[in-house]
Amino acid sequence: RPSAYPPGDTREICGWLADRLKAAGYTVDVLSRADNVDNVVARMGSGRPSLVFNTHIDTVGVGHRAEWLTEPFQATEKDGLIFGLGAANCKGSTAVHLWLAEEIARRGGPSNGEIVFTFVGDEENLGPNGMAFLGEADHVDPDMLILGAPTGNALIIAERGPMWVRITTSGASAHAGAPDAGDNAVERMIRLATRLIENLKPRLAGRRDGEMISTMSLGQFHGGNNTNVVPSDCWMEVDRRLIPSESIDGAVAEIDEILVAAGEPADSWKLELLTGTPGFKAAPDGPAVTAFCEAIEARTGRAARFANAVGASDGRHFAERGIEIINFGPGGGAGHAANESVPVDDMVESALI
Question: Over 80: is that where the pLDDT of 334 sits?
Answer without folding.
Answer: no
